[in-house]
C-alpha cells in the first residue's frame, strides 16, 4: 500500500467507458487539482447537509475554480431524509438554476447524501455527471463507490434507485477528524465486512489494528480505507449491476435492513444494524455447519471491538424480521436469499436455508 | 417490407446485450406467444389508463399465461398525469404486491403510459424488466422505441427520467381502430419527421399515401409504422444516449415543447405541437439559406394534409418561446441548440443560429 502520509493514493473502478478513479488522502478537499478533471462543464451544484456544510463546504468551495457557475444546496441531515421528496428538492434547484445536461453534481457528505445526489444525477435530464466527496467512514469505504444510488420507501430501504456511476470519488481522510465515534464504528462495520467476505488476511489485520482505527491513527485509517475500496472496486468491476458476486457485499444487510426498517430509519445507524446483522449471518452459517463456534467467536469479538451492537432490538419478534426480510431486493420469485459465510474470508449467496433453522436463529439471537 | 396482412413483421433494436425486438402486426395483444418470451419471472404488473383499460386490458390479459402472478394498475389518462406522483403510485403498487427484482412491468397505452412505466421500471429496485405495448400511433412509431423514459416537471417536459430499454415492443396495429382522429394526426407528425430528417423517399411515399393513412388503410398504416420504427431503431442503435445523431429525432420538438409547456400540458397534443414546431424549424432553415421556399411549401402541405396545425398559439409571444426554449435539454452551457433541415431528408444540429434570425422567425410565424 502507498504511504498516505506522503501522497494520495489512487485506485480505479474498472468499468470500461464508465471507469473512474478513487483518490484517497489528506487535504484533497480544498485542492482544485482533484475536482477539476471530473467536471462535465461549467455548471456545478454542491449538495450537502446541515451537519457537513459548516464543517467542509467552504473548504470544498476553495477547490472549485472561480470561473465556474457554482450553486449550493444544503439539505437536512439523517437517514429519515433519504426520501424522494429530498431528491425532488435537488431537481427543483437544478431546474430553477437552469442547469443543463452538462452540469455536474457534487455529493458532499455521508451515505445518505451520496445516495440521494447520485440518484438525482441519474434521473436529471436522463442522467448527468456527479462526483462523490464522502465525509463519513461508511461512505468512504462503501456507499460512495460502485454506483448504487437511491432513496428509501416507507415499505423498504433503497427500494427506488438506479445504478449510476460517479465520475470520481474523492476521499479526504481529514474529514474523519470531525466524525462522531458512533459514526466511526458504523463505518468500521463495512470495513470488517470486506474481510469477512473476501480477505481473511485483511480481517486478521483489522483484529490487530482495531484500537488504532478507533483512535483515528492516520496511517491505519488510510490503509483500511484503501484496502476496503480496492476490494469494493474489484467486486463492482466484476459485477456492476449485482447479477452475482456483488450481492456478497450485502453480508449482514438483510438482517440489518430489517432492523433499520422496524426501528424507524435513523434510530439505528446503518452500520450498527449491519454489525448486528453480520453476527446473525455468522450464527446462521454456524447452524448450517459452515462456521465453527470459534470462528463465530472471532466475529463477535471484532464486532464488539469496533463498538458495534451484538444484539437485536428487544421489541423485534421473529415475525417482524420475516415480514421485512421477505421484501428484500435480493429475493427472487419469493425465495429468501441470504448472504452467508462458508468460512472466514469467503461468503456465498444461499437461498435454501430451512425456514425452521432461520426461525430458530431469530428466536434465540440475543435481544436488548 | 413484409406484407402485414399475412404475418407480423419483426425489427430489432441492436444494442448489444440490451437488444430487443419490435413486433408489428394485427392481433398481437391476445396471443401469448408474443409476451411470454419477454417476461423476466412470474410477477407481472400491467399498467394502463382509464381510456385504454376498457378497450384492451381484457385482450392483453388473454395473452398472459394462467400461472403468472398478474397485477393491474389503471391510472388516469392524459399528459397532465405524466408526473412523478403517478410514477410513485406504480412504485407503491409494486411494493404493496411484494414484487421483486425479477418482476416485469407492461406498459399498455400511449406515450404517457409508456414513458411513466419505463421510468418506474428503470428505478424500481434499481431497474426491472418492462415491455412496451403501445396503443397510439405516436407511441407505436416513436416513444415506445429507444428507451427514453421519464416524467414532466412544472419547469419543463421530460426533465426527470432515464434511458432504460424495454425487453420488447409489441405493436398491435388493431388498436388504431379506436384511436381518435386527432390522436392519429398527432402520430403522423412523428412519422413525417422520419422522412424529413433521414429519408426523402419515405417523405415522398407519405405525401402520396397521406389520405390512405388518415383513412386507416391497414396496409399503408403498417408500412408507415414499420418504416418509422426501422429508422428509429437505426438511430437509437447508433447513439443510445443522445450524444450525437439521436438529437436529430427532436426536429420540431424544441419549438413544440415550448408550445406544450406554455399552453399547459395536454391542451396541445405532443404531435400537434411537433407538427407546428417542424414547420417553424423549416422556416428557420429557409432563413438560414438551407431550404428553398418550394421545399418549405412541401413541408407545410404534408403537415396540413396530416391534419396538423400550421400556426402557433395566438397568446405566445417571442419572449414566451425564448424563455422556455432556453431550458431545453439539448442546450449545453447556455447555447441554444436546434435541430434544423439542411435539405429534405437531412437534418443537422445547429447551435449558431443568430438570435436576430430566431427572433425574426418567432415574430413572423403565423398565430391563431
UniProtKB/TrEMBL annotation, chains A, B:
<keyword id="KW-0057">Aromatic amino acid biosynthesis</keyword>
<feature type="binding site">
    <location>
        <begin position="175"/>
        <end position="178"/>
    </location>
    <ligand>
        <name>NAD(+)</name>
    </ligand>
</feature>
<dbReference type="InterPro" id="IPR016037">
    <property type="entry name" value="DHQ_synth_AroB"/>
</dbReference>
<dbReference type="Pfam" id="PF24621">
    <property type="entry name" value="DHQS_C"/>
</dbReference>
<dbReference type="GO" id="GO:0003856">
    <property type="term" value="F:3-dehydroquinate synthase activity"/>
</dbReference>
<feature type="binding site">
    <location>
        <position position="190"/>
    </location>
    <ligand>
        <name>Zn(2+)</name>
    </ligand>
</feature>
<keyword id="KW-0028">Amino-acid biosynthesis</keyword>
<dbReference type="GO" id="GO:0000166">
    <property type="term" value="F:nucleotide binding"/>
</dbReference>
<dbReference type="Pfam" id="PF01761">
    <property type="entry name" value="DHQ_synthase"/>
</dbReference>
<dbReference type="InterPro" id="IPR030960">
    <property type="entry name" value="DHQS/DOIS_N"/>
</dbReference>
<comment type="function">
    <text>Catalyzes the conversion of 3-deoxy-D-arabino-heptulosonate 7-phosphate (DAHP) to dehydroquinate (DHQ).</text>
</comment>
<keyword id="KW-0862">Zinc</keyword>
<dbReference type="GO" id="GO:0008652">
    <property type="term" value="P:amino acid biosynthetic process"/>
</dbReference>
<feature type="binding site">
    <location>
        <position position="253"/>
    </location>
    <ligand>
        <name>Zn(2+)</name>
    </ligand>
</feature>
<keyword id="KW-0479">Metal-binding</keyword>
<keyword id="KW-0547">Nucleotide-binding</keyword>
<keyword id="KW-0456">Lyase</keyword>
<dbReference type="InterPro" id="IPR050071">
    <property type="entry name" value="Dehydroquinate_synthase"/>
</dbReference>
<dbReference type="InterPro" id="IPR056179">
    <property type="entry name" value="DHQS_C"/>
</dbReference>
<feature type="domain" description="3-dehydroquinate synthase N-terminal">
    <location>
        <begin position="73"/>
        <end position="185"/>
    </location>
</feature>
<keyword id="KW-0170">Cobalt</keyword>
<dbReference type="GO" id="GO:0005737">
    <property type="term" value="C:cytoplasm"/>
</dbReference>
<keyword id="KW-0520">NAD</keyword>
<dbReference type="GO" id="GO:0046872">
    <property type="term" value="F:metal ion binding"/>
</dbReference>
<comment type="similarity">
    <text>Belongs to the sugar phosphate cyclases superfamily. Dehydroquinate synthase family.</text>
</comment>
<feature type="binding site">
    <location>
        <begin position="111"/>
        <end position="115"/>
    </location>
    <ligand>
        <name>NAD(+)</name>
    </ligand>
</feature>
<feature type="binding site">
    <location>
        <begin position="77"/>
        <end position="82"/>
    </location>
    <ligand>
        <name>NAD(+)</name>
    </ligand>
</feature>
<dbReference type="InterPro" id="IPR030963">
    <property type="entry name" value="DHQ_synth_fam"/>
</dbReference>
<feature type="domain" description="3-dehydroquinate synthase C-terminal">
    <location>
        <begin position="187"/>
        <end position="331"/>
    </location>
</feature>
<dbReference type="GO" id="GO:0009073">
    <property type="term" value="P:aromatic amino acid family biosynthetic process"/>
</dbReference>
<keyword id="KW-0963">Cytoplasm</keyword>
<feature type="binding site">
    <location>
        <position position="157"/>
    </location>
    <ligand>
        <name>NAD(+)</name>
    </ligand>
</feature>
<feature type="binding site">
    <location>
        <position position="148"/>
    </location>
    <ligand>
        <name>NAD(+)</name>
    </ligand>
</feature>
<protein>
    <recommendedName>
        <fullName>3-dehydroquinate synthase</fullName>
        <ecNumber>4.2.3.4</ecNumber>
    </recommendedName>
</protein>
<dbReference type="GO" id="GO:0009423">
    <property type="term" value="P:chorismate biosynthetic process"/>
</dbReference>
<feature type="binding site">
    <location>
        <begin position="135"/>
        <end position="136"/>
    </location>
    <ligand>
        <name>NAD(+)</name>
    </ligand>
</feature>
<comment type="pathway">
    <text>Metabolic intermediate biosynthesis; chorismate biosynthesis; chorismate from D-erythrose 4-phosphate and phosphoenolpyruvate: step 2/7.</text>
</comment>
<feature type="binding site">
    <location>
        <position position="270"/>
    </location>
    <ligand>
        <name>Zn(2+)</name>
    </ligand>
</feature>
Amino acid at each position: 500500500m502507498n504511504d498516505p502520509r506522503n501522497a494520495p493514493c489512487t485506485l480505479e473502478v474498472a468499468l470500461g467507458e464508465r471507469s473512474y478513479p478513487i483518490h484517497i488522502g489528506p487535504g484533497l478537499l480544498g485542492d482544485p487539482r482533484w475536482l477539476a478533471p471530473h467536471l462535465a462543464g461549467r455548471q456545478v451544484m454542491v449538495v450537502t447537509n446541515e451537519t457537513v456544510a459548516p464543517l467542509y463546504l467552504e473548504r470544498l468551495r476553495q477547490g472549485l475554480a472561480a470561473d465556474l457557475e457554482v450553486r449550493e444546496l444544503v439539505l437536512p441531515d439523517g437517514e429519515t431524509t433519504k426520501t424522494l421528496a429530498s431528491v425532488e428538492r435537488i431537481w427543483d434547484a437544478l431546474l430553477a438554476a437552469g442547469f443543463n445536461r452538462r452540469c455536474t453534481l457534487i455529493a458532499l457528505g455521508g451515505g445518505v447524501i451520496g445516495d440521494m445526489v447520485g440518484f438525482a444525477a441519474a434521473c436529471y435530464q436522463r442522467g448527468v455527471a456527479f462526483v462523490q466527496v464522502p465525509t463519513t467512514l461508511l461512505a468512504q469505504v462503501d456507499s460512495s463507490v460502485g454506483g448504487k444510488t437511491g432513496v428509501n420507501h416507507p415499505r423498504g430501504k433503497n427500494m427506488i434507485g438506479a445504478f449510476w456511476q460517479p465520475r470520481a470519488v474523492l476521499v479526504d481522510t481529514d474529514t474523519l477528524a470531525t466524525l462522531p465515534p458512533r459514526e466511526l464504528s458504523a463505518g468500521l462495520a463495512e470495513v470488517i465486512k470486506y474481510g469477512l467476505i473476501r480477505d481473511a488476511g485483511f480481517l486478521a489485520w483489522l483484529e490487530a489494528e482495531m484500537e488504532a482505527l478507533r483512535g483515528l491513527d492516520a496511517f491505519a485509517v488510510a490503509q483500511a480505507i484503501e484496502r476496503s475500496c480496492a476490494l469494493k472496486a474489484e467486486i463492482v468491476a466484476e459485477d456492476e449491476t449485482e447479477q452475482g458476486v456483488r450481492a456478497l457485499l450485502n453480508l449482514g444487510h438483510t438482517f440489518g435492513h430489517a432492523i433499520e426498517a422496524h426501528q424507524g430509519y435513523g434510530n439505528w445507524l446503518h452500520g450498527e444494524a449491519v454489525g448486528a446483522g453480520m453476527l446473525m449471518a455468522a450464527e446462521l452459517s454456524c447452524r448450517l455447519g459452515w462456521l465453527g463456534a470459534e470462528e463465530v467467536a472471532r466475529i463477535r469479538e471484532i464486532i464488539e471491538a469496533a463498538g458495534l451492537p451484538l444484539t437485536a432490538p428487544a421489541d423485534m419478534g421473529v415475525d417482524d424480521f420475516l415480514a421485512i426480510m421477505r421484501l428484500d431486493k435480493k429475493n427472487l420469485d419469493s425465495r429468501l436469499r441470504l448472504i452467508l459465510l462458508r468460512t472466514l474470508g469467503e461468503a456465498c449467496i444461499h437461498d435454501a436455508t430451512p425456514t425452521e433453522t432461520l426461525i430458530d436463529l431469530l428466536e434465540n439471537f440475543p435481544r436488548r
